[in-house]
Amino acid sequence: MKRIAIDMDEVIADANIRFAEWYKRDKGIEFTHEQLNSKKFSELLPADHQYLIKEYVYHDDFFVDLELIPGCQEVIEDLYEKYEIFITTAAMEFPNSLLPKLAWLGKHFPYISWTNIVFCGDKSIINADYLIDDNVKHFKRFVGQGILFTASHNHDVEWDVRVNTWDDVRKLLL
Amino acid sequence: MKRIAIDMDEVIADANIRFAEWYKRDKGIEFTHEQLNSKKFSELLPADHQYLIKEYVYHDDFFVDLELIPGCQEVIEDLYEKYEIFITTAAMEFPNSLLPKLAWLGKHFPYISWTNIVFCGDKSIINADYLIDDNVKHFKRFVGQGILFTASHNHDVEWDVRVNTWDDVRKLLL
Questions:
Q1: N or C terminus of chain B with fewer C-beta within 10 Å?
Q2: Which family does it belong to (chains A, B) (predicted)?
């Protein structure tokens, strides 16, 4: 059985929506979906608001109850029939994310066992056939095939295998 | 540069001493080092005390400030000069262990970056040349060479590459 490793943020969990919610709460400024999808969140903020990004991602509640990226639940459930599925997230950078991420996975993907959840940093440590991720940096030393999941920050990045939606993942792997 | 993945409990962190401390505190019964080193902790307890083991490992403080396995700091520091070092621990089974384990690593191995720490379950997901671990189950589907670190529970387990101490690791890999 081939194995797929799947990233969390911007692949199955939408951290961008949380950024936008909190920014609206704190500064009263709202972004459209189009803006959020076209640029990195940091590029949308003026220089004197950049500090908020770090403040947000290190806040205990930032990773709690993030919204799902559309379609991921349905497609992963179908992939699960034909592949070994591992969730592999570079969570170690944000210790505050560890328990919320685990709770989030338990809620939205209850059939994925704790044995198949990986919190890491450098993803070259992952032994899988495919890695679905929004950061090409993780593909450089990865043993399998990197599949770039389109996110606001990677529109201009070159990579040979790219998917824009979970429907694209279904077409590619099922 | 070759890569070594190193387990935590019973390889660099001594959970057995914590078991013994808490058991003495709760039941007034003390074990000798010889007893602790020769049998699984559960084999030392009478049937009506077995429930304590689960109670302990799921307690928030169980993994806090565990003692170091002798020699691990010195040898890992030397290995670090010649190998990529990753810490790979099946921490997902015990969500209460995640933050204490991260804090413990920061305290005792401050030079190991967050990028090289992996909390996982099934270690066949680990891509490394060597895995130093006290559980042979992790070697079955591991891509590299498993190195069995002797612990009280694995004396009778057969495995071709075994080390009894960190000095043995030094002799094997340096």
A1: N
A2: Belongs to the 5'(3')-deoxyribonucleotidase family.
Distance from CA of B95 to the nearest CA of A (A): 7
pLDDT score for B101: 98
C-alpha distances in Å from residue A167, one per residue of A6, A145, A174, B114: 15, 18, 10, 33
**Cα B107 to the center of its chain, rounded Å:** 16
Q: Give the pLDDT confidence of B76-90 residue by residue, as tens digits.
A: 999 999 999 999 999
Quick one: A51 and A82 in the same domain?
no
ipTM reported for the complex surpasses 0.90: yes
Rounded CA separation B30/A47 (Å): 62
**In terms of residue numbers, what domain contains B33?**
15-57
Q: Are B92 and A114 a contacting pair at CB < 8 A?
A: yes
Domain count for chain A: 2
- Predicted confidence (pLDDT) per residue in A80-129, tens digit: 999 999 999 999 999 999 999 999 999 999 999 999 999 999 999 999 99
- Look up residue A12 and give its amino acid: I
d(CA B126, CA B119): 11
Same domain, A82 and A23: no
Residues A48 and A81 in one domain: no
